[in-house]
Protein 1
Amino acid sequence: PLGLAFPDGFGWGAATSAYQIEGAAKDDGRGESVWDTFSHTPGCTKNGDTGDVAVDHYHRYPEDLDLMRGLGLRSYRFSISWSRVQADGTGAPNQRGLDFYRRIVDGLLERGIEPMATLYHWDTPQALQDRGGWESRDTAYRFADYTEHVYAALGDSVPVWLTINEPKTVVQNGYITGHHAPGKRDKPLAYQVAHHLQLGHGLAVQALRATGSASRIGPAFNLHPCYPADDSAAAAAATRLFDGYENRLYLDSALRGHYPEDVLADQGPDSPLVRSIRDGDLAVISSPVDLLAVQYYTPIYVTADGGTEQRHATTKAFWQQIYPDGMYDILTRVTRDYGPVPLTVTENGLPCPDVLGPEDDIDDVERVAFLRDHFAAAHRAIADGVPLESYHVWSLLDNFEWDQGYDERWGLVYVDYATQRRFLKRSALWYKRVIADNTV
Ligand code: FCB
C-alpha cells in the first residue's frame, strides 16, 4: 500500500456497456444494432465472436449486482441499449426494454450503489444506420427523442447521466480505420459524423434539462495526452494538430462552443465537417454540463511527420502503452483549460492474459500494479486541485471487447465463458481493500 488517502465519499466504481455484457440479443423485443450486424459479418471480429450471449448479464444481473456489493462499489457505470428501448430507433418505447434498466437501477439503489448511466455506447439501431446513422443529422434528433423516453422512465433515479461514450472512437474506428461498426473508411465523412455525435450530445443535455430533473449530465470523452516524439519544431506543430483531433475537437465544442481553428483549417471550408455545421449548432453542443467524464488508457507520441511512436511498454491491446503520468497530465490539463467543471474518470484499465488457476484464483498482478499506479496519479491530480469525484475501472467483468471479441480480458471479475461462472481476480480482491480503506 502507498498510503494515499482519497477524499471522503470518493466514488470508487467500475464500468461496463450494454452490448459488451448483456447478451439476450433477441429478448423482450430488442432490435438489432450496428454491432449485431458488424459482429455477424465474417472477418470483422476475432474468431467471429459476437455479443449474442456475451456474459449473459441480461439474465444474471442479480448475481452481478451482488458481486458489486461484495466489492463495496460506490458507483456503477453501465449503458442503455437504444435498440432495447426503440427496436428500430424511433417511435413508442418498448416497455420490456425499459423495465430491464429499471430492475438494474433499483437493484443498485437497494445495494447502496450509485447508478451512472450512459445513453449511447456505440450500439446504434441498425434501422437508423440503414438511413445513414450518424452520417445523417436526423440521427441526432432521433437520439434526443430516445433520451426523452429513457428520462421519462428512469430520469431522477439515475443521479448521473452520460450522453455519448467516446465520440472519437466512433469517428476513428467506425469511420476511418473501419475496425469497429459500422466499418466504413471515409475520413472526410468521419468528421461529419463527429459533428452529428456532438449535436446529439447537446440535444440530450437539453432534453434532460427540459424534464426539470435534478440529475446531472455530461459527455464521456476518451482523452489522449499527446507528446512530441522529439524536440523539433516540426514535432511540436504536428503534436498540436494531433491534439486538436484527439482532444480539442470534442472538448472545445462541448465546453467552449467552438471547434478548434486548426482542425477547421485542416479540414477546409468545403469539408463535410464544416458544411454540416448549421447556425446555432455550437450553442446546442455547448449546452452547460454538470460534469465531464474522462476515459484514459494511453498517451500518444507524435513524430515530426505526424506519425506516432511507441515509448512505453505495450499491452495486449495494440493501441495501449502504459504511462500512469498521462492520467495526471490529462486530468490537470482539463481542469486548467476547461475548469472548474467536476470530473469523473469513467474508464481506465488493462487487458491481461488471465488464466483460472487450480484454486479458482486469477493472479493478475500486472493489473493490480497498473491500477495502483493510475490511482496514485489521480491522487496526485486531486492534491493539485483537480475536482475528481469518482473513478470507474474498466471493467467490472470480462466481456466482449468489440473487434477483439472475447480474446481480451479487461475485468476485475473473471468470466468462464463456457459456464458463465464468475471468479474474483486478485485485482478485485485488492480493489475491495482500496475501497474499504478509501486508501491506495
Ligand atoms: C473503451 C471503450 C470500452 C472498452 C475499453 C477497453 O474505448 O469505451 O467499451 O472497449 O475501451
Protein 2
Amino acid sequence: MDDREKRSADLERRREEARLGGGAERIAQQHERGKLTARERIDILLDDGSFQEVGMFVRHQVRDFGLADRRPYGDGVVTGFGTIDSRLVYVYSQDFTVFGGSLGLAHARKITRLMQLALENGAPIIGLNDSGGARIQEGVDSLGGYAEIFLLNTMASGVVPQLSAVLGPCAGGAVYSPAITDFVFMAKNTSYMFVTGPNVVKTVTQEEVTAEELGGARTHTEKSGVAHMACENEVECLHRIRDLFGFIPQNCEDSPPFVQTDDSPDRMDEALNDMVPEHPNKPYDMLEVIRGLVDERNFFEIHAGFAPNLLVGFARLGGRSIGVVANNPAALAGVLDMDASVKGARFVRFCDAFNIPLLVLEDVPGFMPGIDQEWGGIIRHGAKLLYAFCEATVPKITVITRKAYGGAYDVMNSKHIRGDLNFAWPTAEIAVMGPKGAVEIIYKRQLAEADDPATAEEDFIRQYRDTFANPYIAAGQGYIDDIILPAETRYRLVRGFDMLRNKVARNPRKKHGNIPL
Ligand code: HXC
C-alpha cells in the first residue's frame, strides 16, 4: 500500500467509525425500541443519495468526568444538507447511541452552523430530535449551546421554514427548540417531550404518570397542542414531513411550488349543494366541504387531534398552495374556543410569513361561553386569531357557508379586516347573535307581557330569521362580494386566487407588533 492508498484507507476507516456512532450494540438497542438510527432517518427523509454531511469529524473538547477517553466522531449529531423533491434542505439528526443524543457545546455548534447556512442560503431546516437534553458533564457549556440554538431558531422564524420531528425521549432543553419551530411531528409510543420526566413529576407533585401519558405523541397532539402531527411510526413521520414540503416555499421571499394537476379548475361539485342541512343546528363535516373544493380532494391537515372545531391545513387550488382555516360544525358546533383560537392564529401567521394564500370557510356560532373559557382567557386567546387575520397581507378569501355570528364574523377574515374576496352561500346567516338569544334580549319586555310567550317567541324568531338568516343584507352593504352556489365555489376560488396572485399589501413600518400572547 503506498502513502496515498494508506491515507485513503485511513479516511475510510474513520468515516466508518463515525457512521457507527455509539457502536453496533447501541444501534441494535435503538432498533429493539422500534427506533431508527440518526442516519437511517436522514436516508428516508431525503431524496436518494442527496445527503452531504458537514462536520462528520467534530469531537467535543471536554476532559472531565472521564470524557477525555470518549470522544466519538460527530459528537452525537449528524448534520448536513440534501434535497426533498429536488429542493435544498438542511437537516440535523441527533444520534441517541452517542451519550443519549445529549447536547454539549460541539454538538450545539454543529447545529447552529447549519442553521446559519440555512439562513444565509434561504432554505428550510429540519431537526430530527432524539436527545436526553443538556449534556450533564458539560455543565454551562451545554446550557449555552441550547441558548445559541434557541436564538437562531428565533432569528430564522419567519425567514425559512423550520420543521421538527421528535423521535425519542426529548427532555429538558431538547423540547424548547422544537417548540419554537413551525411544525412538530411525533411518532406514537417512541417519542416523548417533557420539561421534566415522570420521576421528577412524582418527586415534586406526587403525581404518578407514564412517559407516554405525560408527554407522548397523543398527549401533545390532542391535549397540549405542542405537536402538530402524531404518526404511527418514524417512517410515516418522515414521509409526512416530505409531504408537507410540497406545500411550502423555501423561504419568505419565495413562492410555494406549483404542482400540476388533472383536477379541472372548472370542476363543479354538485354534492356541495346538499352539504348544509336544512336545520340550522344540524352538524355537517367541513372536512368534506374542503375536500370537495381542493385539487384531487387532497387536504394535508395540521393539528387534526387538537381543537377539532377549527380545521387548519394545506391544500392546492389550480396547482397552487393555499392554507385553509375552517370552522367545523361537526365538533362543538364549530364554536371558537381558546384552543381553536391559538391553533388558528399560529397557522395563519405561518401562511402569512411564507406567502401562502388563505382560504377561510366559515360556519361559526360565536365564541365559546363559559367560566372556564373566560377565566382561561378566551378574550386574550381569541384576540390572537383576530390579530393574526388582521395583520396577514397574503391573499385572503372567505366563504361563509352558514353561520357568521357576532365577534366571530369579524374575526374570520371579514371584509372589514382586509378579506380580499368575501363570498357567501345562499344558506349564510350573518347576525350579531343567533335568533333565540337575540329575541330574548330585544323582545324581553314584549315576551314578559305576552299572553302566550312561547308563541310570541316563535313569531319573533321567525321575524328575526327572515331578516338576518340570509346573506343579502351584508351583500347589500358590500361586506359580501358575491353570493355563490356551493357547486361553483371551486371555480370561483381558483379564479379569485388567480386574480390575487400579484397582490401587494404592507403593514405600517414597525419594529414588531405586540400580539396578545
Ligand atoms: C449526558 C446522558 C444524558 C444527559 C442520557 N445520557 N441523558 N448523558 N447528559 N442529559 C446518557 C446516559 O448516561 C446513557 O449513557 C445514555 O445516554 C442512554 O441513556 P439511558 O438512561 O440509558 O437511556 P434510557 O433509559 O432510554 O433513558 C433516556 C432518558 C434518560 C429518558 C433521556 O437518560 C434521562 O432521563 N436523561 C436525563 C434527562 C434530563 O434530565 N436531561 C437534562 C435536562 S436539563 P451510557 O454511556 O451509560 O450508555 C436541560 C436544561 C436545558 O436540558 C435548559 C435549556 C432551556
